[in-house]
Amino acid sequence: MKPYILSIDQGTTSTRAFLVNQDGEIVAKSQREFEQFFPEPGWVEHDANEIWTSVLACMAEVLRIGDVNAREIDSIGITNQRETTVIWEKKTGRPVHKAIVWQSRQTEAICEDLRQQGLGTMIKQKTGLLIDPYFSGTKVKWILDQVDPDRTQAKAGKFMFGTIDAWLIYKLTGGKIHKTDVTNASRTMLYNIHTLDWDKELLDVFGVPENMLPEVGDTSGHFGTTVSHHFFGYNVPISASAGDQQAALFGQACFHKGMVKNTYGTGCFMLMPTGDDAIESDSGLLTTIAWGLNGQVTYALEGSIFVGGSAIGWLRDGLRMIEATSDSETYATRVTSTDGVYVVPAFVGLGTPYWDSDARGAMFGLTRGTTKEHVIRATLEAICYQTKDVLDTMMKDAGVMLHTLRVDGGAVKNNFLMQFQSDLMNAPVERPVNNETTALGAAYLAGLSTGFFKDKDTIKARWKQDRAFQPQMETVEREKLYHGWQKAVEATRVFKVDES
Ligand SMILES: Nc1ncnc2c1ncn2[C@@H]1O[C@H](COP(=O)(O)OP(=O)(O)O)[C@@H](O)[C@H]1O
Ligand SMILES: O=P(O)(O)OC[C@H](O)CO
Question: Quick one: signal sequence residues (predicted)?
């Protein structure tokens, strides 16, 4: 048995590679940031080639750091920022446009047109998604409209589309394999999550020829092997591809309905598996695929918050109130409350449960006595309020009670954030010892396919708690604070800049 799995976590702001051993421990890690392009307000793009070279660099570096030879790698698991859209030329492998990132709002006009055509219900029934620029479908249409408006080239089979996993699989296999998995496909708005097929009616709506689309497989399965010149002379199997939020759900061993994880990264994403029941939400949750294993799909409910930890990046880079994101905890705990200040970080609109593309950020309750400590605390609290909005909706739609929330992602190091979250939800918040649950999830999924890991119970047995935050706040206080937040969101949504 080869002793390691190489897990690649291709995220929104950085690429990471990890070596995971059979005890489910991370023995080496490497990380590279890459450029974010903001060509217009609200637009976010990546250079797909830069992402690819960051993956190659991280793979080489993690082997060097771990002092591991490529021949010791059992398999590769890929997990990725979801929805981000790449279209490349079949013949040359060259991207035809920058990758359009999940956060980008540049397809809002296309979305509005779809809403006007009354397609919302059909799209939701088939894909589990709501019409919003977040998903890949309108991004594919947008790129094709730029480079091939009448679709002559696309119909002639000149282009390939992929989410980031499919792009990396294509590159790693030397262009031999064009494949994705069900979790990534379920975020495209082109895939029918019930029939498990690319949907012809949707492809027509978006003007996307089927020949551009990748094959769709189980999350844990066969995605080809690396070509040896990319992997130090070895052909290593790629055995998993999973959207990063789904990989985190798996890595957190949330295998049953009622087990919920929330990831606090750039945005926040809360997922709960619902078994073979694709629960449709009327309150703004998404119905999505948690994973595909052995030909069997598990569904999930998801709440997506577009601005989570990145609001703390804004305090640092935009407002310059802090030098490092970790300073936010120090400042927040210098005051005992926000003194009535609320920050609504709707910088790119609001996701679940509001789905308001036009909303923009706001701050309320300012007085002459407001200090930066209050603003910083209010920004951290906003992450928790948004999470409560999503959680309450999820519990109601699924008809379950929350016992405990499992958390991960870059911002969970912040103890103030975690304690306030627990207080606000009146439930324990469990932080795992190993916060790299996304990478671990991808490693587990890869290892299940090759026999490196025995079964899902092995993963459950390896989950260890670092700290459980217990609720301490009085009910009256909690309700008062949350009521203030609800009023702030309402007021934010009323305010619209007149662009005429
Ligand atoms: N101590 C902290 N307190 C609050 N937010 C933090 C802290 N450390 C990191 N963050 C936030 O966490 C995010 C990074 O988390 P990460 O999981 O690496 O994100 P992603 O995978 O989306 O790139 C950043 O937006 C950063 O502002
Ligand atoms: O890269 P992350 O961790 O911000 O995750 C992004 C999500 O997958 C977007 O849906």
Answer: none
